[in-house]
Amino acid sequence: MSLAADIAVKFPDVAAIERGKYAVVLLDEYQDTSQSQVRLLSALFGNGHPVTAVGDPCQSIYTWRGASAGTIGSFGEYFPKAKGSTGSEIYELLTTFRNDVAILDLANVISSQVRSLGNLNVSPLTPRKGAGKGDLAVGLFETMEAEAAAIAEYIAPLWKDPQRLVETSKAPKTFAILVRKRAQIPALQSALRNADIECEVVGLGGLVHVPEVADIVAMLSIIGNPDAGASLMRMLTGPHLALGAADIAALGAHSRSLAKASSSDSRSLVKKIVAGNPDSAEADDQFLGSLIDALDDIAKADRSTFSSVGYQRLTDFAADLRRLRSRAGGAITDLIAEIERYLNLEVEVLLRDGTRSGRRHIDRFMDEASKFARNGASLNAFLQWLDIASREEGGLKAGAAEASREAVQILTIHSAKGAEWDVVAVPGLAEGTFPSDHKGDPDNWLTNERHIPFALRGDGQQLPIFTWGGVTTNADAGKAIRAFKDQCNTFKEQEEIRLGYVAMTRAKSHLICTTSWWRDGQKFVKPSSIFEQAHHVATQSGRIITFDAPPEDDARNPVRENPATAQWPADPIADRREEFSAQISLVNSTVPISVGALVDAGSGDDEIASWARDTQAIINEFDMYKSAVSAVALPPRMATSTLIALYEDPEALALSIRRPMPRASDEFSRRGTAFHLWIEKHFNVATLFDDEDFDQLEPLEADQKLEELKSAWLASSWADRTPHAVEVPFETVIDGVLIRGRIDAVYKDGDRYEVVDWKTGSKKLGKSAAIQLAVYRLAWATLQDISVDDVSAAFHYVPTSVTDRPADLMSEAELIALLNQFGA
């Protein structure tokens, strides 16, 4: 962005071109515009061009990326009404069409602390005409668990209202819980599930902590990182392996023995190198022991230290990991799907949440992986990306959240900006939590190397200023540093207040604000200033649902004093084991019997006859299920390659349409793209390739095989002929379906044409590939408004200099029949 701004500033012609495209410019959410973006936009559209910016400085929550709250106030400096002036007209849009009265009352109280910024004073908002009273509820509880349960209790009657999903002119209510920290999510999820309320974690950072997704990430980490001991422990102690402490201790001892042996080998290695014998040193086993390495070498372990069941599980798991690791070089999405099958996650989540929403989080994670993997990214790159997403609130760009009616959505307040819900809960309004004290990452460049000096930032004039003026002694320096720290803390607190304003204004009609005395520490925590404001407003225009008294000064955290207990390893059937074992024995002792034999055995017994009918019905239903065909509609627009796939393998195409997977760019496709681009340049034709095609060429700067393709083509008869057209894009309609493609070359001979497709592979293609030529021939005939009989078609295999002209190309009627055969 900074580079783009420099170009716009240094080259006025660029700005003139862009200004010529747009008579009027509207900048939305201007308070989120960074300094580099302001420079770029000002260079393009400043100096009197008609520009209008819309924004709310009270919603400025992205100062960490250069979007300061004073951006709107300085609008006139960058976009003056006329060239050479510095002013701009300001209009206030003060009516909110979202919030009911009680919710807006609270929002205005919160924003009153930050509405005055520099030369800009923002007026409080007013409700729309006919706005409802709104429901503002406030609660102060003993523990976080009680707080989460109360939120679920507040949501439950609204969620389970029989009228919620009834078809009316009014859309069903939407629900969200907005958290300041992701650590709050598990307790809220658990409370909602206990109340039988469907929930969804929104945002990748929170998604990776959902149990089923966390299991997938753990497996990916084990496969891609030999030091991912914590991830391995998750799997060893989880339900898939359910190892006991003794077996885990034995694996740890095996790991230490390997490390000890490796240390001895390392000393031997140094001696060999010093002695001038590096060749023998290279053959030595040089790995350093780790828990994952120990698992991989489980065959070398002392079996007597393991239980027989534990050793077998570890041996099987090690073999499974080797199999999965062999697929780590392929598509990330394929590996995730394989891990999902291996862990039987689909069964688990469907049993837990039902068929309607059980797969929600797995599917969302797969979508994120698919987006990331489009450019052929490696597993390690994906794991690093996930790590940033899980640790950094602003580490990854989050797409705008969309309200869903299918579940109560749980997301961070930053992720919620720009969205709205009917019912919103804002928990955790405790000192240090919200507003956050940011003890781990203060925005102070004097003490935190992650931040550059504010004077070097483009928005530095809107940030706290540190000055050495008057500093002559160490005591003076210490005083100046402390004063600057106080400025930074105040500045950060103001952003937290704006974040609170954003949270409250997401709600339309229902808002519940809560906190608890006991968080996750040893000392109780007082309610924050935002909670106190919510409590004050609720006493006047809302309601207090609970207000627990503060603990005694010497009280201890009841959650820490009475931690939850559970059996480990966990027994999935626990108190039903005896009954379950008896049922297994009963099933194993039975003899298979046909339905007819069952009827005969009953000898007219009505109850047995009823069993037979029920059994037959189940068999019939199962047979129907096995033979059922799931219909997948073909898209109304498709590439020529899709039509070929339809002919070759319609089932595979259906799966691809239902769940698109990224196609990794390989050496051969990149070489083919490079060759086609070279052909264009050979004929001095302006390129029609997309930007991503050029991206694919970067690794092929020196490619001997590409040079061989060029030489082979130059030696062919086609090199001496002048094409009528090169790289012709087309879109043609076949029986209502738009088919698009690009013809490599067209040659003209008298009144006849020939379309040619360059093939950079040597293997002659089969009948299915000839569909490509049939479509090209039909498309060219349509473009030229001539008979298809006047157009021939050919493949030219460049490496072997062989030209193939299939004699049995499909006619238009046959192409239509192909589409109709599979329900286009």
Question: What is the element layout, followed by pairings?
Answer:
Elements: H1 2-10, H2 12-21, E1 25-27, H3 35-45, E2 51-53, H4 75-78, E3 95-96, H5 101-111, E4 116-117, E5 120-121, E6 126-127, E7 135-143, H6 144-159, E8 175-179, H7 185-194, E9 199-201, H8 204-207, H9 211-224, H10 229-237, H11 245-274, H12 278-282, H13 291-296, H14 308-325, H15 332-343, H16 345-353, H17 360-372, H18 379-391, E10 408-412, H19 413-416, E11 421-426, H20 474-504, E12 507-518, H21 529-541, E13 543-547, H22 558-561, H23 577-588, H24 595-602, H25 606-627, E14 637-639, H26 640-648, H27 650-658, H28 667-682, H29 691-697, H30 704-714, E15 725-734, E16 737-749, E17 752-759, H31 767-784, E18 791-797, E19 802-804, H32 812-821
Parallel strand pairs: 1-2, 3-6, 7-12, 7-13, 8-10, 8-11, 9-10, 11-12, 14-16, 17-18
Antiparallel strand pairs: 4-5, 15-16, 16-17, 18-19
CATH superfamily of the largest domain: P-loop containing nucleotide triphosphate hydrolases
Spatial gap, N to C terminus? 44 Å
Regions with little confidence, pLDDT below 50 for 5+ residues: 264-274, 278-289, 394-398, 685-702
Number of strands: 19
In the sheet with the most strands, the strands line up as 9-10-8-11-12-7-13
Integer-rounded radius of gyration: 34 Å
Shape: globular
Task: Note the total helix count.
Answer: 32
Judged by helices, strands and strand pairing, the structural class is alpha/beta
What composes the largest sheet?
7 strands, parallel
CATH class of the largest domain: Alpha Beta
Q: Give the percentage of residues in beta strands.
A: 5-15%
Helicity level, as a percent range?
40-55%
**What fold name goes in the CATH topology slot of the largest domain?**
Rossmann fold
Q: How many separate domains?
A: 5
On the 0-100 scale, what is the average pLDDT? 82
- Provide the CATH architecture of the largest domain: 3-Layer(aba) Sandwich
